[in-house]
Amino acid sequence: MNISNTKNMLSQLERKINAFGDKFRVLRDRSIHVDYRADGVGVRNKNLSFLDDQTFADAWTMSAELNKEGWRKRKRGVPDIRWRAHICCWAAQHGLGLDGDFVECGVHTGILSLTVCHYLSMGSVPKSFWLFDTFEGIPLDGLNEAQRRQASALNRNVYSNVWDLAQRNFAPFPNARLVRGVLPGSLDEARIERIAYLSIDLNHAPAEMATIERLWPKLSLGAIVVIDDYAFRDHEAQYEAWNDFAARQGKMIVTLPTGQGLLIR
Ligand SMILES: C[S@@+](CC[C@H](N)C(=O)[O-])C[C@H]1O[C@@H](n2cnc3c(N)ncnc32)[C@H](O)[C@@H]1O
Is 107 in the pocket of ligand 1 (CB under 6 A)? Predict the structure, then answer.
C-alpha cells in the first residue's frame, strides 16, 4: 500500500467519523424536540423548539387546564392542538404591530384564544380581544338536513352551555370582551373599527361566510386570518366556501399541515 492510498483511506475514515459525530450530537441533544404526533399531524426530525419555548409552554398548559371542564363530554378531554395554538400565537403576535383589535369567532371555552391571551399577556396589550360565540353550541335554525346532522352531532358530543366557564376563564383579561349571541348578527353588539388578528372557528360554512363578508373590510392590510377547520376532512363545504371567498378578493389561502388555512388581508 503506498502513502497516497493510506492518506485517502485516512481522510475517508475521518469524514465518516465526523458524520457520525454530527448525527450523534443531534441524538444526544434531547433538549431539542424533533418529533410531534397529535391532532392528525405527524412529523419527524424537525426542529420543533416552539414546543419548549417557556412562554408558549406555560400559556398552553394554563389554557389546557382551564379548558378541561369545557371538554368533559369528550373521553380524551382537551385535545392536544398545540401546533394550531402556536399558529394563532404567531398570527396574533404579528397583529400587535397593526392597527385594530383581535377577534375570534367561535370560542367555546377558549383553547386557542386563552393560549393567545396568556402568551401575549393580553391584559397589558392596548387592544380589545372580541370573543364571539353562542357559548351553547351551533345554532340549528336555517340549516339544511346535512348541516343539521353535522351540527347536532357536534352539539351532542362536545358543546354545552359554557357561558359561566368562559366568563371565568377570561376574567383575568379585562380587555377580553365576550359577546354572547348568534353570528353574524351578534357582530352588531361590538364596536369594532379595525381588526389586526382574526381567528374563525365556527365549524359551519354559512355562518363563517356571513361573518367574513362583514369583517373583511375591517381588517388592516397585512392582518392574518386563521381559518381553523379549513383543510379538515368532512369540512369540505368550508374549504370550498373559503376558496371562493379568497378568489373573489384576488387572494389564495395556504393549507397548513395542522388543517388550518391562512389568509392575509
Ligand atoms: C370548534 S368550537 C370553537 C373552539 C375554540 N376556537 C377553541 O379554541 O376552543 C366552535 C364554536 O362555534 C360556536 N358557533 C358555531 N356557530 C355559531 C354561530 N352562528 N354563532 C355563534 N357561535 C357559533 C359554537 O358554539 C362553538 O363553541
Answer: yes
